[in-house]
Amino acid sequence: MRINWYPGHMHKAGKELKQLLPKIDLVIEVVDARIPFSSQNPLLENLRGDKPCIKILNKSDLADPATSALWQAYLERDSAIKTLTLDTDKSDKGPLLLDLCRELVPGKTDSRVHPINCLIMGIPNVGKSTLINCLAGRTIAKTGNEPAVTKAQQRINLRNGIVLFDTPGMLWPKIEHIDSGYRLAITGAIKDTALEYTDIAFYAAKFLLDNYAEFIQARYKLDTPAQSELELLETLGRQRGCLRAGGQVDLEQISTRLIHEFRTATIGRISLETPQMIERELVELLAKQRLENERKKAKQKGRADGSEKPEQQQKVKR
């Protein structure tokens, strides 16, 4: 599944970001604790350079706590990065985040005269705007339960020596990593109208059976474990009365319910990726990209020297 969803305001925000970064002392990147890799923007990561960065693993109360601890240790191997986990209400660690900002920019001793300029960024629907409102103690940034609510850059003076520069949630033009595309869809980072619930529900069901089978067994009180994602969805569909005429399971309806229960942690606290899993997938992705590049070069060479295969030549004649 390759996702192409890049609204115009995101393209504009990317250009504005390049102009803004020279003024920035510190970057705060908000990621979804359930998918810390898939929810970080590679374009933003490249633009940050060597500026200190705080990675906020947001919605940590929805994620597997053991996996979140693995991610914190993994990310902090970079000496310029510190991590902090935040729950969906964000009320407990706001002061800790501000103290961490001051710790990472020690050069600005008189912050009243020279405030710390912090760029706060993140992809859609990771809870960035809610975090800003929590830090400011008032409603400043618009919030919503769907992606792409913030449309324009905002400058927010917290009046405590820290100024936040907020940017729209930005996805990159193409999500090449197939698994990351599915994970972003499952967690709601991509508008639901841009995908098919049945498609992502099959992916989610397989992942849950492979990694959190005990959660599925307990939540849905299944007599016997499902042997496949289709069997699980059909079993749940019959259990929940998601049926069409003739008693056939309505896969779209039960898929919608399964994804909703994942997003609200009704099934349990679940993480969709681990550092080890991501490193393995990246090796596979690089190998695949190398093969594709080699095929393209061979094809271009064949066209240049006229050594096309006979069947290709026949197609050209037709």
Structural account:
This protein is α/β, with parallel strands linked by helices. It has 2 domains: 8-166, 3-Layer(aba) Sandwich (Rossmann fold); 196-263, Conserved Hypothetical Protein Ylqf, Chain: A, domain 2 (Orthogonal Bundle), CATH 1.10.1580.10. Helices cover 47% and strands 10% of the residues. It has a 6-stranded mixed β-sheet with strand order 3-2-1-4-6-5, sandwiched between helices. Helix 7 crosses helix 10 (251-263).
Number of E strands: 6
Order of helices and strands: HEHEHEHEHEEHHHHHHH
Beta-strand proportion: 5-15%
Give the N-terminus to C-terminus distance in angstroms: 33 Å
> What is the CATH architecture descriptor of the largest domain?
3-Layer(aba) Sandwich
How would a textbook summarize the main sheet? 6 strands, mixed
Under CATH, the topology of the largest domain can be stated as: Rossmann fold
Q: How many structural domains in the coordinates?
A: 2
Rg over CA atoms, rounded to whole Å, is: 23 Å
CATH superfamily of the largest domain: P-loop containing nucleotide triphosphate hydrolases
Compute the average pLDDT. Answer: 83
Coarse shape = globular
